[in-house]
Amino acid sequence: MSTRFAAREYHAVEAEGLRFLYLVPSAAVFCADAAASAVLDRLQVGPDTLDGLEGALAGRFAATDVRAALSDLMEVRAVGPEGAGPEPMPVEAPPEGIPLKTMVLNVTSKCNLGCTYCYEYGDDRVVEAGTMPRFMDEATARQSVDFMLGEAGVGERCHLTFFGGETLLNFKLLQSTLTYAKDRAAEEGKRVDFSLTTNGTLLKPEIIEWLAASDVGVTISIDGPREVQDKLRVFNNGKGSYDEVVPKVRELLKRHTSRPVGARVTLTKANLDIIGTFRHLTEDIGFFEVGFAPVTTAEGRDYAIEGDAYWHMLAQFEELAWEWLEHAVQGRHHGFSNVGETIEEIHKGFSKSHPCGAGVGMMGVSTDGNLGLCHRFAGSEEHRFGNVTDGVDREKQVKFMEEHHVAYKPDCHSCWARPLCAGGCYHEAHTRYGTTNAPNLHYCDWIRSWTDTCLRVYAALAVRNPDYLKHFEH
Amino acid sequence: MRRIKAINQKAARIEQYVEGERATAAQAAAEVGHEPDVELDVVGLESSAPDGPRIPFGCTLMFSPGWETDSGGGTAGLCQPVERDLFDCHLGCFWPAQVPDQLNNAGDWTSKCAAAQKDWRKLDLVFP
């Protein structure tokens, strides 16, 4: 009996009149010609033999073409013998000695704003802020730097991010830590790249000067035009922060030109005019790029984005993504950073065993020097992986990585978007389902839809201006 | 490859690999005097036809001690639970063991068992 062939896992998108295949789990993207597309279409109806395929497509393609197409599709595993089943999913813990490339230092657990949706202080907080030291001290910061350089492996560069609370409340520590880290890195022949996130309220000329002179990458948490910012990002007395923040940000943008300054917007049910916000932040204020993230929330919070609102959000993401494409085709920058990040992962062909590098290549440090899975978990006993003095709790780390492998998320096994998503953010899952283990099933449709959009944008770009993709090959 | 074209970096790596394999196969075919065929070769008891050692499927060579009995003639002392062995028979072995019929009667028998060594407790009995 001759072999019957069946389609394996892939997701097909059309762009520029061509058919593109996103193969799962390899995450390879191929463009299929007419014969290969016809073979796949035929196999979507049901498994068939080579003779059967040749017969069915006889009017349109020569037998040799069908044969060649089938052979190519077999080799890349878009097609397999019937019953071959899914690709096996090896469960391997990340190899030991993966260097720590990014460390996020929570320099304070205090904030001068009182945004209701905040994951650090709001209803969904993981840690009671009051249980933590309010400010990281000098000794802990230095130990953290030493720890990072020790864990950074042989690579030359590592990345230190200052975070809070409101990061600039501990500006003195930023200054001394940066100087210390630069000196220590120089001794070890390494380079540390610095960045921070701030709400912008405390920016003043000497801080701006320091940020620019020290080449610190800056991200401003800002939610948009005045009416939005003043509703969501408020001081503890309820006063809006727009007039405090925007003039200072303008000063920062004027002075700090060595590194692009980005805006990071939290989306809630109350601020879903994404395009308006994008225009305001890029065109009126002058941010180089803007990234949007839906608020992390338990189900049913009044600011949560649910139901149709998600699709409303996605439609605007899509509109900006196509705008991004037109810019990229002309070789121009477009500041919608969400799409750029996904395009890079598609281009490199990431196939993730874990949703992100948290706990391995990236860790958060709480104000008292404990190592957290990431900055969002810093200070949580349950998600503590040791501390900067004694080092990483390897046993706990390995156990965590094993337990959180996508192989242990059966719900993800039939999803074509798993190479990029792998179940989604640990913190999101913890907030929604009470455990980092859970896949984020509440946003599956949305992730697939967004990934599909990015694949179409990617494919169109690969046809219209493939040179632009070199931007993502660093 | 003639009918599909690599677009992203991962695809380029796969293409490079495939071309290498094809060149090797063509060379081997030239030596024995016939063309490589798109139809699968017979590879009984093998997961693939690698260059390295050829490893049969099933429990014969893997650390998956049989599902027969322990040294005392019972099942309590088996070093793996019987469900685990059952799962091996079901998944990777050619041996016609009595396992749930996933085609007709127990389609979701393994849906909560992503990896047997961890999730075997989720394999339940199947009642016809």
* CATH classification, class level of the largest domain in chain B: Few Secondary Structures
Q: Determine Rg of chain A (CA atoms, Å).
A: 24 Å
Q: What structural category arises from helix and sheet content of chain B?
A: mainly alpha
Number of helices of chain A: 15
Largest sheet of chain A: 10 strands, mixed
The tally of beta strands of chain A, per DSSP, is 16
Under CATH at level 1, the class of the largest domain in chain A stands as: Alpha Beta
Class by SSE composition of chain A: alpha/beta
Calculate the mean pLDDT score of chain B and round it. Answer: 68
Description:
The complex is a heterodimer of chains A (474) and B (128). In chain A, the strands form 3 sheets. Chain A has a 10-stranded mixed sheet. A 3-stranded antiparallel sheet of chain A has the order 5-1-6. In chain A, strands 2-3-4 form a 3-stranded antiparallel sheet. The termini of chain A are far apart. In chain A, a hairpin with a 5-residue loop joins β3 and β4. Chain A has 15 helices and 16 strands. The radius of gyration of chain A is 24 Å and the shape is globular. In chain A, α10 packs parallel to α15. Chain A folds into 2 domains: 85 residues, Outer Surface Protein A, domain 3 (Alpha-Beta Complex), CATH 3.90.930; 251 residues, TIM Barrel (Alpha-Beta Barrel), CATH 3.20.20.70. By secondary structure, chain A is of the alpha/beta class. By secondary structure, chain B is an all-alpha fold. Chain B folds into 2 domains: 39 residues, no CATH class; 86 residues, Quinohemoprotein amine dehydrogenase (Irregular). Chains A and B meet through β3, β4, α3, α11 and α15 of A and β1 and α1 of B.
Indicate the topology.
The complex is a heterodimer of chains A (474) and B (128).
Chain A: E1 4-7, E2 10-15, E3 18-23, E4 29-32, H1 34-45, E5 48-49, H2 50-56, H3 63-75, E6 79-81, E7 102-106, H4 138-151, E8 157-163, H5 171-187, E9 191-198, H6 205-213, E10 217-221, H7 226-232, H8 242-255, E11 262-267, H9 274-285, E12 289-294, H10 308-329, H11 337-348, E13 362-365, E14 370-372, E15 384-387, E16 391-392, H12 394-403, H13 418-421, H14 426-433, H15 444-464
Parallel strand pairs in A: 7-8, 7-13, 8-9, 9-10, 10-11, 11-12
Antiparallel strand pairs in A: 1-5, 1-6, 2-3, 3-4, 13-14, 14-15, 15-16
Chain B: E1 4-6, H1 9-32, H2 82-92, H3 116-119
